[in-house]
Design brief:
Number of helices: 24
Low-confidence stretches: 722-736
CATH architecture of the largest domain: 3-Layer(aba) Sandwich
Shape: globular
Distance between the termini: 37 Å
Bound molecules: ligand MGD, iron/sulfur cluster, molybdenum atom
Helix content: 25-40%
Strand order of the largest sheet: 5-4-18-17-16-6-7
Length: about 725
């Protein structure tokens, strides 16, 4: 264990704040301890980090408080899900994995092998997994929870600009004239981005802030204009703004002519979106629509920020591209203070994209479908020609369907908790029960997904393994191993993948001495690609601190921050022009109807992180958000005769859940909101995803987790009970 303070990156959200951590007992000072008396590292903001400038939110500040608790200590195994787990050693665990991979390859074929990973992997974990599955085994069945998160942003950028990659910097937050925040509760989910924007907005009265969200969130409270649109009407709104900009001549014809294509087809589409029609569809006033368009027209620099309100939609790609259209028609791209800026959810979803961590992409922003890309990678990996399959792999939902119909013989889940976070949870759980062999790799035990696993593997986590993460503004930060909290048998995710690779006979491909070597090989795959970071290494990042890409070989490390993409107005398309997209709105996949007249939207709270494996064990955060609830508008509460605090049954065609009613005008009428955080280990029957559906965007395959049709049924008042018997225990509970 290191005995001095270290700098690292926060392992929660995609803001990627720099942290400075001090050992539990600094000289002459009292030892910091968590609620159970275990010494903990003290966390502060790293003032030298360009992304966060010394700031942290409550999650970053408390992150070390849960790293010792409820850890998974050793591999566990059971032949069937009806049996109890027994402790095994790694030798047996590796033998079981190798045997199953060989069996499935022979019986179903390699496409019966699937891995479902996570934006909480370090880039090194992602990379070794790609090499194992896509390179050596020859199946592209690697998908990550980014499918539920960022894949619409990825396909939106690829469609409009010819490559993935958010083009902006956080400095743009303090250089813009107008911030257009759509489907993002930045104040709670990207707090340090929000703090920077908010401080600048307060100081500069000419700067406008527009928030588009069916809820009046903490983010919306700070806005000059809040458009509480009906869920799923974003495309109507964007096309409506475009209609007015065109009518007022507030467009940049020079930029449109020189740097874009397909504008005429787009103008055809937007002619169908006059203000009154748009206002009616969105459920807003014409004057508010006009104000939004006027802010766009009057601002030289518009920065749009978005997150799950756009991406998690059955028309997610169309939403993203239609938003980018506004930037193209006003030439608000490629310069300081403006551009379309997706706020990445997880700490390293960006690194995952760079390393090819979705079933349709390959390392270095390459596509599975592109023969040249496959060939380039086969050469880098020194694999025979044709080793990488030309078939796009299964998305995570397709893996679930594969379990249903017998196409999947092995599902390997790591650093994600799908038994809480997947849509249509009952169907997901039924499919998991049918799995012939599920491997689950996590740092904690128990979690909900462990209930559906045959083999459970203990992973080291942040602070215990060295690697890198890339944040939303393309800044790569080195995250060293500094604490000794890991159980002795836990291994880094990449080490587990590499060991399996070796045991399958691919020794020479996985002979990495450490994660620095893994990274060295990974960056080579980015050479001359849009995400070129071939000049980076663990050594350079440790020496100089965080570095932003692009950072090709021999770049100057003194000049490591402040780059934007597309400043030369040359895009990654065949002709170098950005593409307008002509999309009509289609609305929700499951609109409200007489039986299910309300729209349920599901999102996050400031303190909790997803399925609570860490934040559910931090007292301060549990006090902030003690229990799940359902937000409902006073009008709807009256209609259903509901009182504040009473328990209500929420039903959709797929399932049901129970929540305490929270009556508030912050939610739009006919819409209800529930947090996503509470799985079955943390509350009785309050899983929001029992209600949601898996209908996805046809291009990005991202499910519409943000909206489904529900009804409410009154029940007698029973307090929501947090299950004490499973909460907070980390011992080898026998689970069935
Ligand atoms: N505190 C906290 N922060 C986090 C996380 C966490 O778990 N906790 N998770 C991280 C991750 S992985 C992610 S992906 C991000 C998510 O960050 P956000 O996307 O900001 O968070 P959400 O609460 O999921 O959803 C944002 C908003 O979308 C709105 N919305 C719903 N439907 C629509 C619609 O049709 N149109 C529009 N315009 N808006 C709509 C919702 O009302 C909600 O307020 O947060 C990251 N940061
Ligand atoms: N209805 C609805 N559903 C949603 C969403 C929504 O907005 N609405 N959001 C979706 C989105 S955007 C996301 S990102 C997902 C998030 O959903 P999940 O990915 O399921 O959520 P987490 O709780 O972050 O799961 C991460 C797991 O990894 C473990 N872990 C942490 N570090 C490591 C490590 O280094 N190695 C290993 N092996 N394990 C580790 C943690 O203990 C935890 O169990 O949920 C999705 N589901
Ligand atoms: S804003 Fe995100 S990255 Fe920064 S401290 Fe909070 S959770 Fe961590
Ligand atoms: Mo996410």
């Amino acid at each position: 264990m290191i005995s001095e303070k270290v700098t690292t990156v926060c392992p929660y959200c995609g803001v990627g704040c720099g942290l400075e951590v001090q050992p539990p007992a600094s000289q002459g000072k009292a030892t910091n301890r968590d609620s159970e008396g275990t010494p903990i590292w003290k966390v502060m903001g790293d003032r030298t980090h360009p992304s966060s400038l010394g700031k942290v939110c409550v999650k970053g500040a408390t992150v070390t408080e849960a790293i010792n608790k409820n850890r998974l200590k050793y591999p566990l195994y059971r032949e069937t899900l009806q049996q109890d787990f027994r402790q095994i050693d790694w030798e047996e665990a590796f033998n079981l994995i190798v045997k199953q991979i060989q069996l499935v390859s022979k019986t179903i074929g390699v496409d019966g092998i699937c891995m479902y990973g996570s934006g909480q992997f370090q880039t090194e974990d992602y990379y070794v997994a790609q090499k194992l599955l896509k390179g050596c085994l020859g199946t592209n069945n690697f998908d990550a929870n980014s499918r539920l998160c960022m894949s619409s942003a990825v396909s939106g950028y690829m469609g409009s600009f010819g490559a993935d990659g958010p083009p902006c910097n956080y400095e743009d937050l303090e250089l813009t004239d107008c911030a257009f925040l759509v489907g993002t509760n930045t104040a709670e989910c990207h707090p340090i981005v929000f703090n920077r924007l908010r401080a600048y907005h307060k100081k500069n009265r000419h700067v406008k802030m527009i928030v588009v969200d069916p809820r009046r969130t903490a983010t919306a409270e700070a806005a000059d204009l809040h458009l509480a649109i009906k869920p799923g009407t974003d495309i109507d709104l964007f096309n409506g703004i475009a209609y007015l900009l065109l009518q007022w001549g507030a467009i940049d014809t020079f930029f449109i002519d020189e740097c874009t294509r397909d504008f005429p087809a787009y103008t055809q589409i937007i002619s169908h979106y006059p203000p009154q029609i748009v206002a009616d569809k969105c459920g807003i006033e014409v004057k508010d629509l006009e104000t939004a368009a006027r802010y766009w027209a009057e601002s030289e620099k518009v920065l749009s920020l978005w997150s799950m309100g756009l991406n998690q939609s059955s028309e997610g790609t169309a939403k993203v591209r239609t938003l980018i259209n506004l930037h193209l028609m006003t030439a608000t791209i490629g310069k300081a203070g403006c551009g379309p800026f997706s706020l990445t959810g997880q700490p390293n979803a960006m690194g995952g994209r760079e390393a090819g961590g979705l079933s349709h992409i390959l390392p270095g922003y390459r596509s599975v479908k592109n023969p040249l890309h496959r060939q380039e990678l086969e050469e880098i990996w020194q694999l025979p020609s044709g080793a990488i399959s030309a078939n796009v792999g299964k998305t995570v939902w397709e893996m679930i369907m594969g379990l249903e119909n017998g196409d999947v013989g092995l599902l390997w889940i790591a650093a994600t908790n799908p038994a809480v976070s997947m849509p249509d949870l009952e169907r997901t759980k039924q499919a998991l029960l049918k799995s012939p062999f599920t491997i689950y790799q996590d740092a904690y035990y128990p979690t909900e997904t462990a209930y559906y696993a045959h083999l459970v593997l203990p992973a080291t986590q942040w602070s215990e393994k060295a690697g890198t993460m890339t944040n939303s503004e393309r800044v790569v930060t080195y995250s060293p191993a500094f604490s000794s909290s890991a159980p002795s048998q836990a291994k880094a995710d990449w080490e587990i993948f590499a060991e399996v690779g070796k045991r399958l006979g691919f020794e020479k491909y996985f002979s990495f001495k450490d994660s620095a070597q893994v990274y060295q090989e990974f960056v080579k795959t980015t050479r001359d690609r849009p995400c070129d970071m071939s000049g980076l290494s663990h050594e350079l990042l440790s020496k100089y601190g965080p570095i932003q890409w692009p950072f090709p070989l021999r770049s100057d490390p003194e000049n490591r921050y402040g780059r934007r993409l597309y400043t030369d107005l040359h895009f990654h398309t065949e002709d170098g022009r950005a593409k307008f997209a002509a999309f009509h709105s289609r609305g929700l996949a499951e609109p409200p109807n007489p039986d299910y007249p309300l729209v349920l939207t599901v999102g996050r709270l400031y303190g909790h992180w997803h399925t609570m494996t860490r934040t559910g064990r931090i007292d301060k955060i549990v006090k902030m958000h003690p229990e799940p609830f359902l937000e409902i508008h006073p009008k709807d509460a009256r209609k259903y005769q509901l009182e504040d605090g009473e328990l209500v049954r929420v039903v959709s065609v797929r399932g049901e859940a129970k929540f305490k009613v929270k009556i508030t005008s912050a939610i739009a009428p006919s819409t209800v909101f529930a947090p996503m955080h509470w799985g079955f280990l943390w509350a009785e029957n309050a899983e929001a995803n029992s209600l949601t559906h898996p209908h996805s965007c046809p291009i990005s395959k991202q499910p519409e987790l943000k909206a489904c049709a529900v009804n409410l049924i009154k029940v007698n008042q029973i307090p929501t009970e947090i299950k004490q018997e499973t909460k907070g225990k980390g011992e080898l509970t026998i689970i069935n």
